[in-house]
Amino acid sequence: MSLTRRASYAWAAFIATLVLLGAGYLVVGGSSDDRALAGAALPAGPHGTGGPSGDWRNWDPRQWLRRAGDFINPVIDGVWGTDRMRAAQGWSNTVGAGVADAQGVSDPVPSPVPAQPENHPYREHAAASGKIFFDTPEGPAVCSGTVVHDPAHPGRSNLVWTAGHCVHAGRAGGWYRNVVFVPDFNDTGDNGRARGSLSALVPLGTWWADWAETSPEWISTGAATGGAGAPFDFAVFHVRQARGITGSLEETIGTAAPQVDFATSPAASGVPVGVWGYPARKPFDGFSMFRCTGPAGRLSVADDQPTLYRVGCTMNGGASGGGWLTRRADGTLALISNTSIGPTPAAWLAGPRLGPEARKVFDTVSARFADH
Is the pTM higher than 0.70? Predict the structure, then answer.
């Protein structure tokens, strides 16, 4: 059976799950080999590893690039080998469990829903989901992301949707470095933290981001704790081909990427969603994909900002940026949010409603590469 056909069966199974939800059911769902495989198709750019924009070990706050047009991410071969991938920490944006106590538009706090491991191989069950690696002042970190449809290149998308805090530190910092996307990371589940070659962990290659956008609201107000900027905590980045790959990212994962839906009502409550990610903090280890499914309620973190979605789920740091998918009336899948915030200990996740601000971010990246 072809990869494309197998992957299409996986999406069909997910649609069936959302049909049940729509009907009112809650479904709980450092070696030489490393150095050779860790890079993308192009060598290090003119910035190399020197200077404030290219040196991933230099985090002088006076030189940290932070403006919307400052993103730069030169390919550095060998940065992402197995050792650094294993050392990467789950990145998160934490809030107190009572964040919405004073907000009248929030729905009741959902009960914790245990995250369920996704079935292997991931290419047959959640092909569009993957893992994001990047460098921060605190060291290597991980988030989650989703390959999404690009209207400028139907069927050949190189766009990844994630959280703003997975690419930019917000008001206290700037753009993270060495940002890469690994589709279907650890696809077969045979490689744990202590074993496994890089080729097994990244079966579809390591895709370096060559441009990223997040909202100006996240850049100016976003914070790592407390929920500041969460309603605008989204980002899109474009990737270049991984080493040895001839097709686009969408063609490589072997299935149609979900479209992004910017039209869902901001007052919607009970929207059936599936949430995917690679949680990396205990009791998780970051090497397995998990999912939560259920009805998404509303969460307001500020009276003057858009309402977020919230769903019961026990995923934690590392799941940030993972896609929230739902089934539209025509039967197609659409991405309506991404994981942004959650409490400690993990009990629920919340993500922004994707409105006009998110559309502007998305359209900017798509248009930038329309002629490529």
Answer: yes
